[in-house]
Amino acid sequence: MRLLGLFWIFFRVGLVSFGGVFSVLPELQRALVDEGYITPQGFIQAFVLGQVVPGPNMAMCTAIGWHVAGPAGALAAFVGIYSGPVAMMGAAFAAYNRWRDITWVRRLELAMRPVVLGLLGASAISLMWTAANGQRLLAIGVSFVVGFLAVKTRLGALALLFVGAAAWSAGQLLLG
Amino acid sequence: MIATRPVPTTADWLRVNLAIGTLSFGSASRIVLYEDAVVRDRGWLDPDEFAEVLTVAQLLPGPNLVNLSAYLGYRLVGPVGSVLGIVCLCLPGSLLAVALSGVLAVERPWVQAPLRGMAVAGIVLLLLFLWRRLPGLASTPDPATPAPARVRLVRGVLLAAVGTAVLLGASLFAVLGVSIPVALFLEFVL
């Protein structure tokens, strides 16, 4: 029963998770904490964890599921949070794919490009603001190194991520 | 052209997702990692197709970081491969979150420093990626004729307006509610 309740919480939250986990965080916390699945502190820990592990930041849901009911709980949370959006996406993608060769559908996509680029640009800038918080000089230095190597060499994104990690660690050691 | 383009198998696609799911620390890097994997390294899609997939994935409902993988998978290997791809993308981080939840040490400096470096590097790569996408604003349904200067200017202004509104703290729903009708009006009426 507890498992079913857990699945239901994640499933209904997943259905409205436009824009990732941030938009549903308050609702998720309310449901899980009020119904006694997890303490507020446990919820915050899971959130922090979900932010540092690789992959989509919904990873926190699996961790909460595990915390509540072991492997079965993790599975319930994983399936719950993803099945709703995946079904909706599948239907939308199928519809778009079917009609994307029609000229006005193609024009629709082209018309939306500036909106998407603007959104992504703004989120990149505000993410940078957060990431650089308190370490502005280091952030500028690391950005310069990574940007320079990205433009001047053929290094792939993965290699450049590790360059960033190494540069920040080295900078932190040097600056104390 | 059609005959020479490599076509991925489902196994190829799952390997790509597993790798990105394991290594994409910091959400900003994911778009660029997919572009590297799908366009630059393997040539499964051309850059303009990637731009199309990105637009569709960002605007349809769902957790938007998963959408990109979902729709890429749908285009490349079909619906079943797409769902399996999402599982491969999400699994490594989920397992790691479970494994680490007992020994939470994420506030230690030696854990934080490389993670922050990766986050910053990912953001820089995302900004460079967006910069490279700007010529895509001149695309029209006919690849041979680019859009006239007037259209490009209008699209550029729209991009700047959307970005500024979000940075000034407007809610996502408000921004999309205004900008989508405006974009459609500009495209189809003018």
Question: Quick recap of the structure?
Answer:
By secondary structure, chain A is mostly helical. Chain A has helices spanning 2-15, 25-34, 40-52, 59-99, 103-131, 136-152, 157-175.
Describe this structure in words.
The complex is a heterodimer of chains A (176) and B (190). Chain A has 176 residues and is mainly alpha-helical. Chain A folds into two domains: 2-99, no CATH class; 132-175. Helices cover 81% and strands 0% of the residues of chain A. Chain A has helices at 2-15, 25-34, 40-52, 59-99, 103-131, 136-152, 157-175. In chain A, helix 1 (2-15) packs across helix 4 (59-99). The longest helix of chain A has 41 residues, at 59-99. The termini of chain A are far apart. The two termini of chain B are 35 Å apart. In chain B, helix 1 packs across helix 4, helix 2 (29-40) packs across helix 5 (109-133) and helix 3 (47-59) packs across helix 4 (64-100). Chain B has 190 residues and is mostly helical. Chain B is built from seven helices and no strands. Chain B is globular. Chain B has two domains: 10-138, no CATH class; 148-190. At the A-B interface, helix 3, helix 4, helix 5, helix 6 and helix 7 of A face helix 1, helix 2, helix 3, helix 4 and helix 5 of B.
Rg on CA atoms of chain B, Å: 19 Å
Q: Return residue spans of chain A where pLDDT drops below 50 for at least 5 consecutive residues.
A: none
User: What separation lies between the terminal Cα atoms of chain B?
Assistant: 35 Å
Bin the strand percentage of chain B.
under 5%
* Helix percentage range of chain A: over 70%
Question: Percent of residues of chain B in helical segments?
Answer: over 70%
Terminal-residue CA separation of chain A: 52 Å
How many individual β-strands of chain A? Answer: 0
Major pleated sheet of chain A: none
User: Spans of chain B of 5+ residues with little confidence (pLDDT < 50)?
Assistant: none
Chain oligomer state: heterodimer
The overall pLDDT of chain A, averaged over residues, is 83
Most extensive interface: A-B, 88 and 102 residues
Structural class by sheet pairing and helices of chain B? mainly alpha
Structural class of chain A: mainly alpha
SS summary, helix count of chain B: 7
Total count of strands of chain B: 0
Series of secondary-structure elements of chain B, N-terminal to C-terminal: HHHHHHH
Order of helices and strands of chain A: HHHHHHH
Largest sheet of chain B: none
Shape of chain A: flat
